[in-house]
Amino acid sequence: MQGSCLCGEIIFEVSEPIPALYQCHCSLCRKQTGATSNTAMAVNSNQLRWLSGQQLISTFKRETGFTSNFCSKCGSPVPNQIGNSQFIWVPAGLLETTAGLSVATHLFVDSRAAWEALPTNGKCFSEMPGLNEIVGFLYDQANT
Predict the structure, then answer these.
(1) Cβ(37)–Cβ(119) below 8 Å
(2) What integer pLDDT is reported at residue 144 of this predicted model?
(3) Nearest CA to 32 among 52, 62, 55?
(4) Using an 8 Å Cβ cutoff, are 90 and 43 in contact?
(5) What was the pLDDT predicted at 10?
(6) Are the C-beta atoms of residues 91 and 12 closer than 8 Å to each other?
(7) 3-state secondary structure of 38
(8) Which domains are present in the chain?
(9) Helix, strand, coil proportions of the chain in percent (round to 5)?
(10) What SS3 class is residue 46?
(11) What does the radius of gyration of the chain's CA atoms come to, in whole angstroms?
(12) Given this model, what pLDDT does residue 65 score?
């Protein structure tokens, strides 16, 4: 499954198995995306391969450790490592195809924007569960 940034200079590929998606409603993800939530997948680092444009990736890192990689040409957020884990955050909006993908869980629903209704699809968490737990759940949901 391939994905690219808005200008098309950064291109990557995610190999199977493809997990289900999650939506994070925390304030950092809302600010990073400019939307009510961040729809993404978390994949093992060995599943992501850069095809082009890796030299265009810039990084913003908050003092808290929150990291955002983005294309220095068009500003699109692009995949990056989740903390010090073996997982890579992949923004779902960058994927060339969305066939077969679905949102299985929502994170930080208690932090959602005031105008956003409580999600009715998928499992909801008021905060962030353990990373290994949530990633395992997303892979399990993709296979059901």
Answers:
(1) no
(2) 66
(3) 62
(4) yes
(5) 99
(6) no
(7) strand
(8) 2-142 (2.170.150.70)
(9) 20, 35, 45
(10) helix
(11) 15
(12) 82
Mean pLDDT for each consecutive 10-residue tract of the chain (144 residues)?
98 95 94 92 97 97 90 97 93 94 95 92 91 90 79
Per-residue model confidence (pLDDT) at position 44:
95
Angle, vertex CA 3, rays to CA 68 and CA 109, nearest 5: 50
Spatial CA neighbour of 39 closest among 98, 118, 126: 98
| Close Cβ partners of 136 (under 8 Å, ≥ 6 residues apart) | none
- Distance of alpha carbon 36 from the chain centroid: 14
How does DSSP assign 50-100, residue by residue?
A: EEE-GGGEEEEE-TTS-EEEEETTT--EE-EE-TTSSEEEEEGGGBS--TT
User: What 3-state class would DSSP assign to 10?
Assistant: coil
Query: What's the rounded Cα separation, in Å, for the pair 82 and 28?
Result: 14
Q: What is the pTM of this model?
A: 0.92
Q: Is 30 helix (H, G, I), strand (E, B) or coil?
A: helix
Residues 6+ apart with CB under 8 A from 93: 39
The answer to whether 78 and 69 are in contact (CB under 8 A) is yes
